[in-house]
Amino acid sequence: MNAISAVAGRRSLRAWRVLVLGSLAIAAMWFIGTRALPYFNVTDAQYGPYFWPRRWGLLLHVAGGVTALGVGIVQLWLGLTNRTAALHRAFGKTYVGAVIVSCSAGFYLAWTIPGSPAYAAGLTALCVAWAVTTSMAVFAIRRRNVLQHREWMMRSYVVTFGFVVFRFGVDALVRWKGMSPLDAQTIMAWGAWAVPLVLLEPLIQLGRDQGFFRVR
Ligand code: HEM
């Protein structure tokens, strides 16, 4: 590769990074603003009869989830641009702490979903995927394997983002396909994270082959 095409390649990689991470950040902000922050107003009216008996579990879950969504996107930006000094390490500990809190509360919420086993199983599997991908990212960096740490962090964030995809998907299936909310929730409880994880794999493979995630 000559010097000019190497510079052009770096520029287009930077443009893709800005586009992908920028779009994720906008969608995350929409979700946090419209669907998550209202739960910090802990009232009967806000939670409704479905969530009110499980309100403390949901509050803990949302607090951790908002932190993981926000900090995770900054972490990906810092990590993929090789800015891995003190700030990256501090945010990394915050992200993992937020996932531990939100994921534990997520298990509790999934197991206490009344009477919809396929929906509850999908969200339980999402919790398992969250715990596994995030733990693998931590184990990789403890072994100083930076390349694997990056790849597992991308998988972990795709899973973190699963609940945003879940909400978009449920709203779309109910509004445009006329599905019942429970059918839409059951489909999205599985599809919101399994499909994005499968789509991410070829990108990770391609990135590895092309040296996109090269460690400097
Ligand atoms: C990625 C792993 C996650 C899992 C496994 C998970 C699991 C769950 C479960 C089981 C429920 C209760 C659903 C019900 O009872 O019908 C729930 C609700 C909720 N979760 Fe999560 N969650 C995850 C991530 C997140 C994230 C990152 C946020 C960001 C703030 C979040 C925000 C919410 C909110 C706002 C609700 C209640 C309202 C709603 O259904 O939209 N979750 N989650």
SSE diagram, text form:
Elements: H1 3-36, H2 44-51, H3 55-80, H4 86-111, H5 117-142, H6 146-160, H7 162-177, H8 181-210
Helix pairs in contact: 1-3, 3-4, 3-6, 4-5, 5-6, 5-8, 6-8, 7-8
Bound molecules: protoporphyrin IX containing FE.
Q: Your description of this structure?
A:
The chain is mainly α and 216 residues long. It has one domain (3-210). The chain contains 8 helices and no strands. It has helices spanning 3-36, 44-51, 55-80, 86-111, 117-142, 146-160, 162-177, 181-210. Helix 1 (3-36) runs antiparallel to helix 3. 26% of the residues are buried. The chain binds protoporphyrin IX containing FE (HEM).
Mean pLDDT: 92
**Hetero groups:** protoporphyrin IX containing FE
Q: State Rg.
A: 19 Å
Measured by DSSP, the beta-strand proportion falls in under 5%
How many DSSP E strands?
0
Helix content: over 70%
| Shape label | globular
Q: Could you give a short account of the major beta sheet?
A: none
Structural class, from secondary structure content? mainly alpha
| Topology order in helix (H) and strand (E) letters | HHHHHHHH
Domain count: the total is: 1
C-alpha end-to-end distance? 19 Å
Number of helices: 8
